UniProtKB/TrEMBL annotation:
Protein name: Catalase
Gene Ontology terms for molecular function: heme binding
Listed InterPro entries: Catalase_sf
Endpoints of the signal sequence: none
Amino acid sequence: MRIKKLINDLFLALFYFERRIDPYYRATLDKIFRKPISTLVQALINIKRKDEHLRIGEERLLPNEQAITEGIIEQMSLFLKKHYEHSFVLRAGNTKTYGVVRGEFEVLPDLADHLRQGVFKYPRTYPAWVRFAGPGPLAPPDIKDNGVLSIGIKLMGIEGEKLLEDEKWTQDFTGISAPTFTTPNIVENLKLQKESLAGTPLFYFINPFDSHFLDAIMQGLYAKTQSNPLEAQYYSCVAYLFGDGQAVHYTMKPGSHETTKIPRNPSANYLREAMANTLCTHEVCFDFMIQFQTDAFRMPIEDASVEWPERLSPFIPVARLRLPVQRFDSASQLVFAENLSYNPWHCIAEHRPLGNQNRARRAIYYQLSGLRMKMNKETRIEPDGTEVFDDE
């Protein structure tokens, strides 16, 4: 085990070095090679997959799904207790909070009838708290751990019964800055959590007897030294209902092509500083777009390692997320940010999460959030958008 840990740490040291030189070549590399490599990797993933002949929007439970979910919760709980026993407990995933910012989620007018579902039924604007974060499961200086970022959008003032009852008036949307997830399903995710607890997560990908090399390539194509969380595109990676019998992926695409320069000697929190510098001068907008499932095999619900091809179903804009000029990095607002709970099951029935990763998230996110609150001696809060901070 010690040798395995040493090998893991050696690879991490190489990744840290790459993060330092990444900005000098990555844009060119992505422009030339990302698409052809992704196409090849996706073809290899699909060759290995079995067609289960599911219908559009249809789910299929995995064998022992509840036990696997409980295993993931156990491993991640042990991780939190191991690393945060004597300190403030951070989230077990999407760990480092760069900031939670005020937003306005505007449903576009004149949507086609089939697009007017759930919160998108009428053209109105919802207040939102939007969280930008790093991958985790720890929170080192940004330059060491920012390859794939995450976003959580919490809309408030949403009427209707919620599928998770701890919040009554919210609707959450979550995503990461890669179109596929780290693991294809929760069976493999449990393996990753075991390696993470042992301190050897890289062996999940490079184990020659149980290879996840193709998934590693897909993540690597999008993992890079980030310049500013406000400039990344985010993807749901997993499916959601969109009304009756329609399944969708969604993406949040920045409206600007602006690129922040990465500091030569970045501070430990340079990504938060980049966000703060942007939002102190001008607003930021994201287009919220959905992609309908039109082929149940090529666009699977139960396998999050497969990117849904845009040639089969393009993304359609349905809303716009506006982040106005603001200050968000005050001490009290950062405390508020850590107390928020994001869960895709904070939703109305029209947007129910689909697939085994999402089904597991209901219990995983809720129970780990509860454990974190308990260890930090805090209580769960539901925001309403009227929050004011003393040092704003």
